[in-house]
Amino acid sequence: MNELHFAYLNLGSNIQPEINLPEAVHLLEEYGEIRKVSSAWESKSVGADGPNYLNACVLFMSKYMQVELKENIIRPIEARLGRRRSENKYAPRTIDIDIVLFDNRPYNDRFWRFAFVIVPLAEIYPEYQNPLTGESIVHTATRLRREAWMEARPGVLGQYNGSKFSS
């Protein structure tokens, strides 16, 4: 089956994020097609004290279903970029790649309460509706930004923003 699947992925890093976010996008291109890339957004570490995070969202097209995507693409990219998993799920990391939406379906309901996930997603998919509240994703992003400090860092992924991926 050669059907392509739409996956909106959130990328996050708080260890050399200016290097690791662009490199993660570059590595994703080896496995599929990148259609859109948000700006990078800086935010405070959630769950523990640590360096600030940079997060971004990409629209990634691939032939893989969710489990295959995670095992055959996401985990190997995280490993290549030096991700070390531990019991502390809030530990600093070189890269964290999460599936937010897969074929327009939410992958995990917990993501809908985090500005660092929703703000970059709203930037590249403003017409989506929050599956938990029914409100527009832009409205959700605006509400969440009022509750958490975030700052756009457009230069970090600037080489990926713009017409190259416009659909």
Mean pLDDT: 89
Q: Could you estimate the helical fraction of the residues in percent?
A: 25-40%
- How many independent structural domains? 1
Count the strands? 7
What is the alpha-carbon Rg in Å? 15 Å
Spell the H/E element sequence: EHEEEHEEHHE
Determine the N-to-C terminus distance: 23 Å
How many DSSP H or I helices?
Answer: 4
Shape, per Cα inertia axes: globular
> Architecture, according to CATH?
2-Layer Sandwich
Main β-sheet description:
7 strands, antiparallel
Q: What is the percentage of strand-forming residues? A: 15-25%
State the CATH superfamily name. 7,8-Dihydro-6-hydroxymethylpterin-pyrophosphokinase HPPK
Which fold name is given in CATH as the topology?
Alpha-Beta Plaits
- Report low-confidence residues grouped into runs of 5 or more: 163-167
Structural class label: alpha+beta
For the record, the CATH class is Alpha Beta
